Amino acid sequence: AIPNTVLTIGSSAFHTCLSLEVVELGDGITTLAPYVFSNCSNLKTVKFGTNIASLQNNVFYNCIGLESIEIPEGVTQIGASAFENCSALRKVVLPKTINAISKNLFEWCESLEEITIPDSITCIEEFAFFYCDKLVNVSIPPSVTDIGQAAFSGCDNLTSVTIPDSVTSIG
User: Fold this and answer.
1) Which residues contact 40 (CB under 8 A, 6 or more apart)?
2) Rounded Cα distance, 83 and 22, in Å
3) Which of 27, 35, 98, 143 has its CA 20 to 30 A from that of 48?
């Protein structure tokens, strides 16, 4: 566990720590810098502290052992490719405090079956769900106005997408 006294963790601090399985973040941490836990292939569990507000780009990139993640309320930003190539990721709970699904956020999350897009989301950026092979149903809330290029490209098993009238641009 990372104690509450730790306020920052720099870029790539735990990059490629292949034996790391559990991360418990203390309440002092508000931001996870880019690539902090990228390539931690055996990472299975992440417990966020109460003050986490930002997950920057590629923070969990290529964490192929991560199966589910619940991002707490209070997080206002999740950077591009934060969960890219987390191939075992099946379930994601996003907070109602973010307003965009960043580009490449879940790219190549081939096992992703369940995602609830909160009503706070206004934009699903390009390649957000690129090659999420197990994704079957997506319901886009009426808060969304823009869906980026190739947002759902390669989702071979996608059988149902509900797109509200609020969407004015796709791709």
Assistant:
1) 14, 15, 16, 17, 18, 20, 60, 63, 65
2) 16
3) 143
The sheet carrying 100-101 orders its strands as 100-101, 123-124, 146-147, 169-170
Q: Which of 48, 7, 13 is nearest to 28 (CA)?
A: 7
How high is the pLDDT of residue 114?
87
Average pLDDT for residues 105-120, to the nearest whole number? Answer: 95
Q: Please, are residues 34 and 10 in contact by the beta-carbon 8 Å criterion?
A: no
What backbone phi and psi angles, to 5 degrees, belong to 93? -115, 115
Whether the Cβ atoms of residue 15 and residue 39 lie closer than 8 Å to each other = yes
Q: 83: which 2 tokens?
A: 């969960």
- Nearest C-alpha neighbor of 140 from the set 106, 111, 166, 159: 166
Integer Cα distance of 120 and 127 in angstroms: 20
Q: What's the confidence (pLDDT) of residue 51?
A: 97
